[in-house]
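Give me structure tokens for this 415-residue protein.
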Amino acid sequence: MSDVVETVKKSDSADEISSQLASTQVLGEQNAKDVNKSAEEDDDDDDGDDDDGAQDGASEADKKKKKKNKNKNKNKKKKKSGKPAMQQTEPPTVGLTKMFPGGNFPVGEIQAYDTSKFSEERKRVTDEELREREKLQQEGEGNDYNLIRRAAEVHRQVRQYAQRTIRPGMTTTEIVNMIEDGTRALVEANGFESGIGFPTGVSLNEVAAHYTPNAGDKRVLQASDVLKVDFGIHVQGRIVDSAFTLNFEPTWDPLLAAVKEATNAGIAAAGIDVRLGDVGAAVQEVMESHEFEANGKTHQVKCVRNLNGHNIERYRIHGGKSVPIVAMPDLNVKMEEGEYFAIETFGTTGRGIVVDHGDCSHYARKVNPPSVPLRVSSARQLLYTINKNFGSLPFCRRYLDRLGEQNYLLGVCNI
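Here you go.
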């Protein structure tokens, strides 16, 4: 997407700044050594000159005080700058709180709302009033934007590494392990405090979404494949849900370009008081304006009309609102203040509709599950494991394997 390009530039510049800080720090240490060395030499000279000893000692003390004050001021400035204190490794393994010890994480792309969509009955008066309402909204538990910015910065760094690293010949299992290991390291995974938002999707070609390898999956990425990578990060339940597409030959470049342009149109159309059906109309108009030639055929790009974006609530990846990617003029549900949305677009050269197929790999417990008696003992044990480790966050079989669960398929079917 367009924000990917921009955030790559921001990350590169951050890396340059952190390397400059590192070199400045080393230089400062060397200067300190030189100062100490010269001070020792001055002391030796003082021992040989009794008449000027008191005056030299006083002036030397003044110099040292001045240098200490200067160093303190420099350190204060460095702390206030909010720049990364550490440089990220390759592959990424440094936790974000170590890179940004002050807790202020980078701000991503911000788009202005189209205020013409604001409803009259809302009685909004000024931009200042809107900002104050937004500030009050953030004061609730889990509403601090810094939480989502931390998750977003983790996603940016892991995503950029994945885009550089994924190549044909890798298995889908290797790809998801690489992404999830990086996510756990950077977000400093700690149960419900921070961690993976949902299983990493690595959907190939005709598979639109929600495919993650189960144990024993040996599928290998080919040079002709179109790979959709979808992964999420959460901090205190605030989930970042973002995806990107990779291809390794130019055949389907026009399809990727069409979907990217449609995604940007959907993001631009979003905002407070916007009808969800209008967002779908904006996406469809751009997406289906594209056609291209490939393999001797002319392909019309279509929206996959039964896949949608959605709002995201704390610890709940799919909230109660769906964002269509086709025009739905009768859908009058609106976006409101304080809500988080994933604008998801799916373009295809096929029929424009998906069906369920293959083994299930993604699972999630309901946010408020009903009380149901479980007669199978393995189901009771499995539910305990789910409540303890995932709650209402999505998980997959690989995550259960990682926790040491065995013979759980019967339990899954009975929950």
